[in-house]
Specification:
Elements lengths: L4 E11 L6 H12 L12 E9 L2 H16 L5 E8 L14
Antiparallel strand pairs: 1-2, 1-3
Length: 99
């Protein structure tokens, strides 16, 4: 029986260069009014955190990359980066059971 390792994975998603970012523009316009002058070029993205059970870090990253391309992001207008932490804090994959 093989034992999977539980990995903490973070996906940071940002609009691609040249893609309109209305949320970033709204934040940028509001900053001076809220007493934060001198801040600009604001871009707003999102962070997705997952726990992935996989054989190794490369397999965890490959699985998350496939999920990003197919479901978690819009590759037409968004770029993403994946960070894998080896292993995640806590028990082994499958709650410590072998698969």
């Amino acid at each position: 029986m093989r034992t999977l390792v539980r990995f903490a994975v973070a996906v940071d998603v940002m609009p691609k260069e040249g893609i309109a970012d209305p949320q970033g523009q709204t934040v940028e316009r509001a900053l001076p009014w809220l007493g934060f002058p001198g801040m600009g070029q604001v871009r707003v993205g999102k962070r997705i955190e997952l726990v992935v059970d996989a054989d190794d870090a490369a397999a965890a990253e490959a699985a998350v990359r496939a999920a990003c391309v197919r479901f978690l992001t819009n590759p037409v207008i968004e770029d993403f980066t994946i960070s894998v932490v080896e292993p995640a804090t806590g028990a082994q994959g499958n709650g410590g059971r072998s698969a």
